[in-house]
Amino acid sequence: MRVPRTFGDQGPDLEPFTTSYPEYGKGGQQQFIYDKGDIKFIKVDLLEDE
Fold first, then answer.
1. Cα→Cα distances 10→15, 20, 30, 33, Å
2. Does the pLDDT value for residue 11 go beyond 70?
3. Contact residues for 34 (Cβ-Cβ < 8 A; gap 6+)
4. Are 18 and 27 in contact (CB under 8 A)?
5. Which helix (H) or strand (E) segment is 9 a member of?
6. Smallest Cα–Cα separation from 32: which of 13, 15, 49?
7. At CA 22, angle to CA 46 and CA 48, rounded to 5?
8. Higher local confidence (pLDDT), 50 or 27
9. Residue 48, pLDDT above cutoff 90
């Protein structure tokens, strides 16, 4: 698991919370990249958009 970089993982800075594309929303959501296999969830709750 790792924190992506800005601008589609191509920028110079780490971006643990979304900020690079404000035209798609206010951002502020936590993000990470995991590419070592599947992640299995026990429960998923879908939240409404603000």
1. 11, 11, 18, 13
2. yes
3. 1, 2
4. yes
5. helix 6-9
6. 15
7. 15
8. 27
9. no
Q: Which amino acid is at 24?
A: Y
Distance in angstroms (rounded) separating the CA atoms of residues 32 and 44 = 17
Number of residues that make up the chain: 50
The overall longest dimension of the chain from CA atoms, in Å, is 35
CB 5 within 8 A of CB 21: no
CB 16 within 8 A of CB 3: yes
Q: What is the CA radius of gyration of the chain?
A: 13
Q: How far apart are CA 29 and CA 21, in angstroms?
A: 12
List, for residues 20-35, the tens digit of each pLDDT value: 898 988 889 999 999 9
